[in-house]
Amino acid sequence: MPYYTTVPSRPPALRSLESAGSDSVSPVLAEGLDTVYGSQAPAQFERYANALSLFRTIAGPGPAWLFRAPGRVNLIGEHTDYNHGFVMPIALDRDIVLVARPRTDRTIRISNVEPQFEHVSFGVSDEIPHAPPGDWSNYVRGAAQMVAQLAPAAATGMDCLVVGDAPLGLARGSGLSSSSALTVAASIALAHFAGLALPPEQFVQACSDAEWFVGTRGGIMDQFISLLARRDNALFLDCRPSHDGQYITQHIPLPQDHQILIADSGVQHSNVRGEYNKRVASCRIGVAQLSAQWPGITHLRDLHGVPWHEVASCLPEQVTVASALAAGMPIAGIPGLAEDDRLNVRACCRHVWHENHRVLAVLESLQNGDIDAVGQHLQQAHASVRDDYAVSTPELETLVAAASGAPGVVGARLTGAGWGGCVLVLVHQDSAPEAAEVVRQRFRQQHGRTPAIFPCRTGAAAGLVAALSI
Ligand code: GLA
Fold this sequence. Notes:
Elements: H1 25-37, H2 41-59, E1 63-74, E2 86-87, E3 89-102, E4 107-112, E5 120-123, H3 137-150, E6 158-163, H4 178-194, H5 200-211, H6 221-228, E7 233-238, E8 248-253, E9 258-264, H7 273-290, H8 308-312, E10 319-320, H9 321-326, E11 342-343, H10 345-368, H11 371-387, H12 394-404, E12 409-415, E13 422-428, H13 432-447, E14 453-455, E15 463-469
């Protein structure tokens, strides 16, 4: 049995309700929400209605389009995507909503319901100036620049309002990929207004490139799951594109009798651009070193079939950025590196090499219904990001340690890039409340505050929810 099957391409789940032709907001909105959220739709109504009303105050009466893009947790496959490896993310029911209206000029005006984010306005062009690092508008700038490059004549400005969903607020930096959700939502909106229609995988790639605007050299996992999610499923994704840009994906049903809990360490993982990019650089240096032995390789993934000890013997333990640059290693364009940064090349490559094998092992275990094996791989994956990739924190360690000993838990690991954010806990559903309480108590004892712990409910793919008149 191959480890994958090819899922036929389909366009992002865009759904236009313009044809509904209703002059009353409620039925159109209710129908749109129903399609996206199913039985959870009534709980979303007020959030959307408030957003529309606020948008009307900001932009005036007229037409309004509602777009959304979900955040994600990653079941397994951390820091493998930019190495062309395997990942298995799950889209959350928590999402970023964007209320938008195209403008007749090429100005983009963005507001955010979270008060710490200032109103921003900028012009659309194929080379949009950056706001200072850390400025939230950079995600929308990246999206706008991408659409302007792909549809130069049709790219428009827009007025828009961004609505997060705690803990997926941009302010939280909780590692659930609110930033990619914002980039995706803004990209969908601007592409929609420009009439830009790309095949889904090309659109995913474009959104991923758009996010490089902010400086982090991330992979494609977050944009992929946001755009191609299916409720009640994880998405197995092979991040290596074929020569014609196609990816192998498979929707994997989640186990019925187990639940995923998400425990938020409350530590923001903002301002880690340099640390993330250092890991990216370490992997690229690894590939450059290994290509002496294996000519033609481009990513660590190329050595998936080679035993680790053979790979390891060709890798330096550590190099400085300065020496790597002097040797012409391909890290010159990576932002945020300092000449005297020491890069742990061998340990980083070790994590990636083993993590790819773990993703495939989890895929197989899920298909065989061997949940205990899944749990063991999750535990090993956590040890690997902690010890080899060095992206854990004391708070994440407390959560993982507490969860690992809690009733009904089969495995726990930090999810996302690291340096804060959230831990994913796989637990038998009957024990979930008890396990959550054990984790809360242990964390409280250690850190003097109560962490937010919530069940992972899956969400639908990003798209247009409704278009209506307000
Ligand atoms: C961030 C990036 C992703 C991925 C993860 C780590 O979320 O955006 O592309 O690299 O970190 O797995």
